[in-house]
Amino acid sequence: MSYYDKVYEIVKRIPRGKVATYGQIAAITGSPRASRAVGYALHLNPSPGMIPCHRVVNRDGRPAPAFAFGGEQVQRRLLAEEGVEFDADGNVDLDRFLARDLK
Predict the structure, then answer these.
(1) Angle formed by the axes of helices 3-12 and 22-29, to 10°?
(2) Is residue 53 annotated as a catalytic residue, yes or no?
(3) The pLDDT of residue 87 is above 90
């Protein structure tokens, strides 16, 4: 299984209405410093309908400024449709919406 395949398998485990961070996914793969590689893997997502890359945010809960499948506003809309809420700064409240058990 390639590194990207590992990333995709983890992202598939993020439940609807929850998010994970790039760093969290990198740590689960066993490469805790590979946050950028996670982002690149998601940018190349071969199955956007099956691999919910819109559920991955940065360490502050901010959506990707260059979300590969329509831009940040599309990512925000997809998350909001799942019940994920944003604070006044536009970040997801990770205390409420972070998926904690993805291993």
Answers:
(1) 120
(2) yes
(3) yes
Domain assignment of residue 25, given as a range: 3-97
Q: Would 29 be classed as within a structural domain?
A: yes
- Inside any domain, residue 22: yes
**HEC assignment per residue over the chain:** CCHHHHHHHHHHCCCCCCEEEHHHHHHHHCCCCCHHHHHHHHHCCCCCCCCCHHHEECCCCCCCCCCCCCCHHHHHHHHHHCCCCECCCCCECHHHHECCCCC
* 103 occurs within a structural domain: no
Count of domains in the chain? 1
The pLDDT of residue 11: 98
Q: What is the pTM of this model?
A: 0.94
Is the residue at 82 inside a domain? yes
CATH code (residue 21)? 1.10.10.10
Measured between alpha carbons, how far is 98 from 57 in angstroms, rounded to an integer? 10
What pLDDT is stored for residue 88 in this prediction?
93
Which of these is catalytic: 7, 26, 41, 53? 53
